[in-house]
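Note on ligand handling. Small-molecule inputs were canonicalized before submission; formal charges were left as drawn, and no protonation-state enumeration was performed. Where a ligand contained multiple stereocentres, the stereochemistry in the source SMILES was retained. For 2-acetamido-2-deoxy-beta-D-glucopyranose, this procedure yielded the string shown in the input block below.
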Amino acid sequence: MDISNCKHLRFFGLHLNSLACKCVALIVIALVLRAVFLPSFSSFGGIGNNNLFAVNNGPSTLNQELRIEKTQFLEVPQIIWGLNNQKIAFARACLTARMLNRTLLMPSLSASLFYKEVDLLQPISFDKVFQFENFNSLCKGFVQLGRYSEVSNRSDVFELQKGSGRRWTVERDLDQLRQFRNNLYDGYEIIRIVGKNPFLWHDHWPVKDYARVFECLVLVEEISREADKIVSKIREIGSKEIRKVEPVQNVIDPVPYVAVHMRIEKDWMIHCKKLEQRSNISEICSSKEEIMERVGNIVGLKTPAVIYLAVADALLEDNSILIGWKERLLPFEKKKLGVVEIYRKHPYLIQSAIDYEVCLRSDVFVGNSFSTFSSLVVLDRTQKMIKMGARNLCGMEAKWPSYSYNLHGESKGPHPWMTNMSNLNLQAISYGSNHVSC
Ligand SMILES: *[C@@H]1O[C@H](CO)[C@@H](O)[C@H](O)[C@H]1NC(C)=O
Ligand SMILES: *[C@@H]1O[C@H](CO)[C@@H](O)[C@H](O)[C@H]1NC(C)=O
Ligand SMILES: *[C@@H]1O[C@H](CO)[C@@H](O)[C@H](O)[C@H]1NC(C)=O
Ligand SMILES: *[C@@H]1O[C@H](CO)[C@@H](O)[C@H](O)[C@H]1NC(C)=O
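Structure output:
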């Protein structure tokens, strides 16, 4: 029965049918109310609808329903330091929210890299770097992000102070989080964690869970277009150079490239020497010569090949990194590619995000197993292959092979590398390890 039919019947004063119409009208009102209260319809929540409640519903039932349906949020401090640290910190914040059964309020990232002067940290909204809607749709049922505009009462906050110090153990931290799952805190719309940056929180989650969050991080188009430009430049210039030295029929199109995350700058060398002493492991620091030799000996690598050197800016003035590569390996860095300007336009965080993307999409990736950047690239590549149902994850048989040049492999080459997704925490794979699972 449709509405016009209804009016018609009422016009003729048919008592029974008009009663039926009233029933239908009531059902329709009930459905509208339900729809308005459901969170996914929150965009309906304008003034008009509030008036609707006032007319049709008692205030007490309204409050009760709101209590039950109200989204609860978790708020975390601004996320700081380098891209990888920020990604890990963000994942930790998401997984904490998941544990507390709350929606994570979209945190601020930091565009700049000031370690100590926190007041100089340039906050940048998460959605200026990663796609917000896409994150929520990819991570649906796992973790969700919310916007501050979704919060109904910003003063309805409980502050959770993270413990610190040596006596604040992993177990105590976990106990504290478990306590906050308690219904006692359900009354608070927001739990705000104060104190330490999420990167420094304890690591309670398996690698798989981190991988699940990272998967949902898709760069905004503006940034991924910049990465597209770099990648096509690598292939274009690479192809031109290769044609100069090779008969045309030997050139594969598009030209494959090997990305080498070459960590040889001074800061890293000091850091890695210290690490070698402390951990009594000798295979952390690789010299320029060692990296060149190992990359030159990758078993099964088809040459000629383009080598993209992902290096720190300080090294762009050091021409020696382009010299000494094996024949048929054509090395390029940002300067030689003529893409320095593309990077310079952006703050530190975005530059790293572009570099990360270029390494991620490479045909072959070679990094240092003690670098967090390299480790996250390999994790991402491994996850993508697992998702595809790939069988071979190691060596040239893999769709997106990765290697670690600091560990020696076959025939004086680098060691094949994949992420062991069964690890029970991220520590096992991200803060430096020589377990590369291949
Ligand atoms: C988490 O929230 C959902 C929906 O709000 C609810 O169904 C579920 O029981 C909650 N889980 C816990 C452990 O509180
Ligand atoms: C917001 O929450 C605070 C703290 O719970 C409470 O005192 C205040 O009445 C709330 N305001 C509204 C408009 O509900
Ligand atoms: C370091 O490792 C070497 C061999 O791997 C061993 O002989 C030495 O005792 C170790 N030193 C320390 C301080 O653990
Ligand atoms: C992966 O990690 C799990 C858990 O730590 C371990 O049992 C397993 O041996 C590891 N596998 C490889 C190939 O390293």
